[in-house]
């Protein structure tokens, strides 16, 4: 496979194509965005922010990086890579966007797999996240991926220029994704199943509720047709108090749990967990 830098980033202010100029990206109207020394670009204007520091905190990002780097969730990464690669058409130019890429673990794994695969495809990769801390961490993994601070609601990407969007445990924006996807492009959604981390939830909540599953309206996704649904389940053991704490801090459960629940989980040195993940593929009509 042939890897190129993404050339379809768009100005978040007027939507015009961004072109590289020295250490900046510039549009025809003169809007300028600096490329940070780590290699990423911040395309999240103040008017698109709902808080001063949107997205995951630095603490959550670092905890997730430590946890994922241990390989505990590697089966999820392998299944994702399998699904994405099966949707790539041979001998074409393909642009991938990870919408809500976090610190880049899954997208970097996909990149490595496709880079080493035989074929004449031309591939480009855009990792998008609203958290600057997440993008800073992601930019340390891979310099060939275009890491961008931006929002799924208004991806700073040219209209109908992306072939495959991955949204893994992230915020689904049908309108935003539809705008940047080509006709026939794919969305691959990855969401927690009803059994996901049930053992942890039993500890931190007085009464556990299964994760909300997409309802029929969401499953249909206006303007998209369903292609396939697959489920991955496995059990694993987390050893060491530090890793248990990383798992807790990297999830929204840390902020939703009661004080007593958090304290109980933070004392654990060992935890058996169920991983339950649902993969859904949709095609833009």
Tell me which oligomeric state these chains represent. single chain
What is the CATH top level name?
A: Alpha Beta
Low-pLDDT residue intervals, each spanning 5 or more residues: none
Beta content comes to 25-35%
CATH superfamily, called what?
Vaccinia Virus protein VP39
Topology-level CATH name? Rossmann fold
- Determine the number of helices (DSSP H or I, runs of at least 4 residues): 10
**N- to C-terminal separation?**
27 Å
- Overall SS class: alpha/beta
The helical percent reads: 25-40%
Quickly count the domains.
Answer: 1
Radius of gyration: 19 Å
Strand tally, please? 12
Order of helices and strands: EEEEEHHEHEHEEHEHHEHHHE
Mean pLDDT, to the nearest integer, reads 92
CATH architecture: 3-Layer(aba) Sandwich
Gross geometry: globular
Instruction: Characterize the biggest β-sheet.
Output: 9 strands, mixed
Comma- or semicolon-separated keywords:
single chain; alpha/beta; Rossmann fold; three-stranded antiparallel beta sheet
